[in-house]
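Workshop exercise sheet. Pairs work together: one partner reads the sequence aloud, the other fills in the structure field after running the prediction. Swap roles for the next sheet.
Pair: D.N. / O.F.
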Amino acid sequence: MSEEVARFFPYSSFRPFQDKFALRVYAAAASRKDAVLEGVNGLGKTAAILAALLPTVKQRGLSIIYTSRTHRQCDRAIEELEKIAKKASVTGISFRGRREMCANKFVLQNSDDTRTAMELCNHLVKTHGCSFYENTESNPRTLRKLLREFSSGVFTSSMIKERCSEFDLCPYEVAKRLLSNVDVVALSYYYVLDKNIRANFFRYFQKGLRRSIIVFDESHNLPEACKEVASEGLTLQSIRLAEIEAHQRRQKRLQKICMQIAEVLQEIAERANEEEELIEPKEFVSVLKRRLGTQDLATVAQRLEDAGEKNVIERLAEGRSPRSNIRRVGTFLKTWLETSSKETFAHVMSFRDRENRRNPALEIISLDPRDTAKEVLSSAYATISTSGTLEPLDSFREIMGIPEGAITESFPAPYAPDQILCIAVSGTTTKLNARNPDMYEKTARRIAVVSSSAPENIGVFAASYDVLEGLREAGIEDMIRKPLFWERSGSTSGESDELIYQFKQQAGKGGGVLMAVAGGRSSEGADFPGKEMTTSVVVGVPYPRPTATVRAEIEYMERTYPERGKLYGYTLPAIRKASQSAGRAVRSITDRSAIVLLDSRFATQYCKRYLPRWIRENLSNMPDDDELLARRIASFFATNSDK
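Structure field:
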């Protein structure tokens, strides 16, 4: 192990393969290369990455921007950095947006999104209406004291917010001024990926991308995050609200424009045969031009945006929330015009209420994550992409547009052979043509067998909410003695957190069963160490429904990557969702866990070869036999009874 890396490594010894992982990260930073590295949970990736990057960062005056999907994952990086700080001189903060760090009650009560919070904040600053900002500006001595304090250690955003509250200073303003003074900044992907947020962020982060090493943690989420950033949607409800806004502001011409756009969307929805249909973007533009009686839609879009901005300013002056649906319609129309000739976008009509075919929406769907990622990848000093589910690594690298010279490697699991049981069971499937009452009942009974054979909590991750409902209708609640906790489609983050909390409370009390969906909140956003989840059951391969968007993505991928379109646009995303769900029960080096894949397709070579190395190398096939399954699971946990 390099002495430079060991100097920053916070533990007395390395876990199996952790030192090799760290050396690959170190080599990437030292040679200014990108890296794509796969390693299972429990390998100790976060500590290894930080320890391996800090020598180069210190020597060359760089910074680490550590990104992940959730704030909790960002705070974990800061927690590891705190341990490093006990051994070496390092500094860092986790950073959140205005709304999360704001102390002003008016902003918090009147904003539910980033843009609204920003506009409220800017207005209050300009009109001297925020006491926290005023205190920050008028108390330079206190501000300097806090900046020195935060610049000399490691702090989470909540710690910064709490400390600033002692002096009634603005936590967001203080955090902004820290960005260029610390070694590590941990934050959401979107500060780097979204071009508008990135431009604002780097106004305060003076080192810029070229002096930063970007870490993309849990980077299996990266392709979808990149496409999400570049995609937009506009519902019929939003257009109707824009009509009302125009009427209230006596903007009769704009009211008529919004009404006509709504009529065109409504007509498209009435002709639709499916819940989602592709729209020829230029044809939609032509129809809209005829309906509005103009050939210059760009001017119409700009007029809507300008009027919306004016309405926002007036609402702010009235002490109201700065929302404008007119501006929203104008911005969307402008983006539609800009993307109508680009093959990297699909233009779609969908129903937000799919079941009842209500509230139709126009959507602009990004098909290529490289459009979003290319500026970051080409400008950053180096990038490290890591996750437990990235294989095939070259496919991930190619889809993201990471250069061919990148360092790529998949690392073995650090677990002993008897720590993880991975089995693919034949006899059931969630194939669309096989979804019938008999198959759902057989699958439900098999899950019940796993529940009765495995101790404590188990997680069941179905291919979709339809499959979850099929299991409920098959009577699974009567087959399982443990209490069941059902993830609901459309649940809020607060509702999901409460569900997970209640489920975890069953650990040590006989256990419960979490009924969730692969790719849902519970399958990626939560950790279940020890008895909180001893077994994960993946029910079906979570292939997406063959909607218009999915078909468009496969076709685009096929044009871009001949003979690999279905693999890149359909198969790999599904296998990664299944693998993430499987890994919920494997969260630390000490866990002893069972993974049960309930679908005959997992036993095929086609699916197996795309599973991550740590699952693939431990996976065994099992025949269609419930008694054998029960004995195998019971025997595994009898041997490993300490979990």
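Discussion prompt: The longest strand covers residues 345-353. What would you look at next?
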